[in-house]
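Notebook, p. 212. Picked up where the previous page left off. The plan for this session was modest: take the two constructs that came back from the sequencing core last week, fold each one, and keep the raw output in the notebook itself so nobody has to go hunting through shared drives later. Recording the first one now, exactly as returned: residue sequence, then the structure token string.
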Amino acid sequence: MLERDLIETNAALAALMREKLGIRRGATLAAKLRIAGRLLPKAERKAGRTLVEAEQLWANPKLRRRLDPAALAAAEARLRGFLDRIDPADRRKGMILGILASLAFNFMLIAAAAIVWAWHTGRI
């Protein structure tokens, strides 16, 4: 990977994380990975850390030789593949349905408690 390729790849992945996961804070891939936390599976977090560490090593010409282009390409492919499979509209819909489900459960629990209370006091 050339310098421009590595930096552009990390910037593109950061933009993809903003688009797919909704992570608006942080400008770099390192900041977005730190914020994403458990939104990413363990293997994808590790792949992202590999890319961030490679970008830091790339600044030093002597340490640059330690980088494995095949490993960097595999890490980029793994993270990009995961992010490409995410549907933001489906995530939003799932979040809304989760909130509505918890509200419905709480309503049913309160209604059941009210019915039990009314039956216990003889009002029904």
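Okay, moving on. Second construct, recorded in the same format:
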Amino acid sequence: MKVLVVDDEADVQPLFTQRFRKEIKNGEIEFSFALSGEEALSYLHQHDSEIVLILSDINMPGMSGLDLLKQIRQEHDSAPPYVMMITAYGDEENHNQAMQNGANDFLTKPVDFNSLKEKLKRFE
């Protein structure tokens, strides 16, 4: 499974790599990382059919995760990728906006990696 993680915090990449090292080593999951919504869209245009799941932070400078989500849903109307939004704010407004814009799931920071791994088992 190919996963694109979109977060403006650079320390997210080593965190995911460390938490999923067994799954990565076994070839069960492959991560790609983007530091902005714009970078994520560029990546998706180049690797459109490869990505199964997108994990995107909501609060990022420039293009927010919600704006990214809208773009993804506009451009990928057939077989769109599964999108989980991630935010440090568990407020109802962000949750409602994400779900109205086509998010499939919603996670709060700090990410509970055990819970995330359980959710990812749906894709195996």
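Notes on construct two before I forget. The CA atoms of residues 24 and 111 lie 18 Å apart.
Flagging for discussion at group meeting.
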